[in-house]
Amino acid sequence: MTPASPRLTRRVVVGAVATLALPSVALAQTPPTNPPLVGPLAPDPVAFKKALSTFTGSATPQAEGLQLDIPVLADNPSAVPIKAKVTLPITEHDWCEELIVLAELNPIPLACRIRFTAETGSAEAAVRIRLSQSQAVHVLARMKSGKLLAGKQTITVAASGCGM
């Protein structure tokens, strides 16, 4: 008997092609890295920190008392819905004076500022903001008593909204 010689079969050829194709498939599935925005669309971290510190002052924000309804994925970055509601009791002695929305990586971070009075009765707002890229959106509310409420949600955008 003669020893079996290796034969070139369809199974061997398909296996070899699949083995060679796997690295290229893995490379094709690697998500592309987006270049940083430059020019008028570039983030302004100095303006973000300034707006945040101007609003908060020396107060320490608390998470309780502010309810946010913000999507995690924004299909349309030109109009991302932001809903915020102060859940603390609103009285004639303590109410929400002001609520702001900050987009951390937008060229102009202050997206919205809303002021309330004691006669408003509740402090809730629904707005749509434009986002330049995936980023964290901060919502802050200042009560008459000096209490500061804060919430944050990271949003992934499908495409750039500010450059449209």
Portion of residues in helices?
10-25%
β-sheet strand percentage:
25-35%
| Secondary-structure element order, N to C | HHEEEEEEEE
Q: How many beta-strand elements?
A: 8
How many angstroms does the end-to-end distance come to?
Answer: 76 Å
Question: What's the number of helices?
Answer: 2
Give start-end ranges of low-pLDDT stretches.
Answer: none
Shape: elongated
Radius of gyration: 26 Å
* Rounded average pLDDT: 84
Structural class: alpha+beta
- Report the sheet with the most strands, covering strand number, pairing sense and barrel closure: 5 strands, mixed
Q: Which strand order spans the largest sheet, edge to edge or round the barrel?
A: 2-8-7-4-5
Model description:
- With 164 residues, this protein is an alpha+beta fold.
- The protein is built from 2 helices and 8 strands; from the N terminus they run ααββββββββ.
- The protein has helices spanning 10-28, 45-56, and strands spanning 66-69, 73-74, 80-86, 96-103, 110-115, 124-129, 135-143, 148-157.
- The strands form 2 sheets. The chain has a 5-stranded mixed β-sheet with strand order 2-8-7-4-5, covered by helices on one side.
- A hairpin with a 4-residue loop joins β7 (135-143) and β8 (148-157).
- Keywords: Signal.
- This is Thiosulfate oxidation carrier protein SoxY.
- It comes from Comamonas denitrificans.
- Residues 55-162 form the Ig-like SoxY domain.
- Residues 1-28 form the signal peptide.
